Amino acid sequence: MKINKTPLKWPGSKCRAMSELKKHLPAGERLVEPFAGSCAVMMNTDYNEYLIADINPDLINFYQQLKDDSELIISLALDVFGTSNSAERFYQIRLGFNTFKGGLVNQAVAFLFLNRHCYNGMVRYNQQGQFNVPYGKYKAPYFPEAEIRAFAEKAKRATFICADFSETLELVLSGDVIYCDPPYNPLEGKDSFTGYHTGGFGTNQQQALANKLHSLARQGYPVIASNSDSVLTHGQYGYGRFDLHKITVARSVGASAGTRIMAPEIIATRFPAAQQSAQP
């Protein structure tokens, strides 16, 4: 299966899980994703429309700017990528990104630079809302020119909004398919990652999401959700609420592209009785 890569590096990207995930994504008119992430699912499916949301305004601005004028972003970003690849330059751009807010286009360019030069492509903020991932020390950061153009073409079908999952899930319509890929529950003995946004995403939010998805599934919407294969996930999605499918996915664990571990995950699904899982 050919995988279409995305403009952003993204720990937890669904690119490596698409062959399994597509088996569980049913046909529909529009795919609704309340957690945009890398947009790997949008780039590797063929729905007529997409509603792509995220609570991170920097991420949604980046995608909106690519949709509006990808060639301008490419031109400006090539200039920035062509400057010194050094820790000093990285922290200079990070400071400007956090402090000066130089307009939506410039913020999108800086976001791409930081993503491709920071440690492991992480997206993390402190309590003041400042991007705080350190320099990644890559010798030759990749510039995703082809991926940007492909994204801009696919984005013609998409609407991007900055909203949390509860707001986004109020916008579902008949014919929609709902797919959620939230920050994952921690595995037993591991810490959870809650720094993706200043508000965090802890156990209470995980349970609220599972409850909302269960409610929507009972109303007849096809619902699919990814999460870790953990005790918490089984408690939130199990006990007859959803069908739980176990998969194993390779995950990056360091700055080196060759550093991988196999991570257990769950795909939770619930469909209307007459609907089959048949991804476009």
Question: If you had to describe this structure to a student in words, what would you say it looks like?
Answer:
- With 280 residues, the chain is of the alpha/beta class.
- It has two domains: 14-57 and 157-270, Rossmann fold, CATH 3.40.50; 63-147, Adenine-specific Methyltransferase, Domain 2 (Adenine-specific Methyltransferase, domain 2, Orthogonal Bundle), CATH 1.10.1020.10.
- The protein is built from nine helices and seven strands; from the N terminus they run H-E-H-E-H-H-H-H-E-H-E-H-E-H-E-E.
- Helix 2 (40-43) links the parallel strand 1 (30-33) and strand 2 (49-54).
- Helix 3 packs across helix 5 (104-117) and helix 3 packs antiparallel against helix 6 (145-154).
- It starts with 17 loop residues before the first helix and ends in a 10-residue tail after the last strand.
- The model has no long low-confidence stretch (mean pLDDT 91).
Characteristics:
7-stranded mixed beta sheet, single chain, 280 residues, 17% strand, Rossmann fold, 2 domains, Adenine-specific Methyltransferase, domain 2
